[in-house]
Design goal:
The chain has helices at 16-34, 56-68, 89-97, 110-120, 134-148, 165-177, 193-206, 216-220, 240-248, 255-261, 280-289, 298-301, 308-326, and strands spanning 46-51, 72-76, 102-106, 124-128, 155-159, 180-184, 209-213, 225-228, 266-269. It is α/β, with parallel strands linked by helices. Helix 3 (89-97) packs across helix 4 (110-120) and helix 5 (134-148) packs across helix 13 (308-326).
């Protein structure tokens, strides 16, 4: 596997062998970190982290991974960059590409990260866009593989709003690696039809499958993985909550869903999760709608089947693998 100089923008750009190679590298780097084996071979290299959408896990994962590798890090938050405002995306890319060895972008449209990659001259890594979330997918697949020992044939069900980055990317990575993916959501919240057809074509080669259903008991029956995400994405207005809650409440991950999936099933969530009243937004939702739990109940989130914190840790190991593999 030679990915030197390549950007990591979406998993549709990578072969199943390349994705598996990144997972293998992440597992190797994780073992070395656990055993305190240094890998700081990238002294003198520097990476820029552009965050138009802030994130605890993504920022920490990139920063710790870079520091472990001996690299310097410059963090640019929404107030620390003129990207797309006083300076075009293409111009920003050409400037940063002359100063840094790699650039991470977390923000809005996929076209932004694609433009950065076109003009930067160094690897660009997608930390999240509206359409795709490829670094999260590597963490998810590493977590699943660690638990079950394999990926091909795993039955993976995602409940909730499947139209955007998480739903899209889980469907893509499942199709690439031969998992049986189910999106369990109201029809209006299903993934884009063209992307569904692309993934079904990939399944013909990998042995996986794609199923879309509105039926929660049928969709979650005998699944190996039950996953979900927040119902309202970052940047959406508070008035989006009312309609989203009405549509999504039947798709909450609760004890009945996990029991229907079976004792072998694990629960996954990319975080943050609204499972109690421990957040400001959670308390605001409680005041407005009388709900103390949203996409997942606290019982499931804190239960034996939950792997959310293994999943969160694996963000760092898989991001480290992406950087190690692509920085020339």
């Amino acid at each position: 596997m030679n990915l030197k100089g390549r950007s990591f923008l979406k998993l549709l750009d990578f072969t199943p062998e390349e994705i598996t190679g990144l997972l293998d590298l992440a597992a190797e780097l994780k073992e070395k970190k656990k055993n305190h084996v240094p890998i700081d071979h990238w002294h003198g290299r520097n990476v820029a982290l552009i965050f138009e959408k802030t994130s605890t896990r993504t920022r920490c994962a990139f920063e710790v991974a870079a520091h472990d590798m001996g690299m310097g890090v410059t963090y640019l938050d929404p107030t620390g960059s003129q990207i797309g405002k006083k300076e075009s995306i293409a111009d920003t890319a050409r400037v940063l590409g002359r100063m840094f060895d790699g650039i991470e972008y977390r923000g809005f449209g996929q076209d932004i990260v694609e433009t950065l990659a076109k003009h930067a001259g160094v690897p660009v890594w997608n930390g999240l866009t509206n359409e795709f979330h490829p670094t999260q997918m590597l963490a998810d697949m590493l977590t699943v593989r660690e638990h079950f020992g394999h990926l091909a044939g795993i039955r993976f069900c995602y409940l909730g709003d499947a139209r955007y980055n998480t739903g899209n990317s889980l469907m893509v990575v499942s199709a690439k690696l031969g998992l049986h993916f189910t999106a369990c959501a109201p029809r209006a919240y299903w993934p884009d039809a063209a992307l569904v057809e692309t993934c079904k074509a990939l399944c013909a080669k990998s042995g996986g499958s794609v199923t879309l259903t509105e039926d929660v008991p049928a969709g979650t029956k005998d699944q190996d993985v039950i996953a979900t995400d927040v119902w309202v994405s970052m940047g959406e207005p508070m008035d989006a909550w009312a309609s989203r809650i009405r549509a999504m409440l039947p798709y909450q991950v609760n004890r009945a869903v996990m029991e229907n999936a079976g004792t072998q099933a694990i629960f996954m969530h990319c975080l943050p999760a609204f499972h109690d009243l421990g957040t400001g937004i959670g308390r605001e939702i409680h005041e407005k709608f009388g709900l103390s739990e949203l996409e997942v109940t606290n019982e499931v989130f804190e239960g034996q089947q939950s792997k959310v914190f293994d999943e969160a840790e694996n963000r760092m190991h898989t991001i480290k693998a992406v950087m190690a593999a692509t920085i020339a």
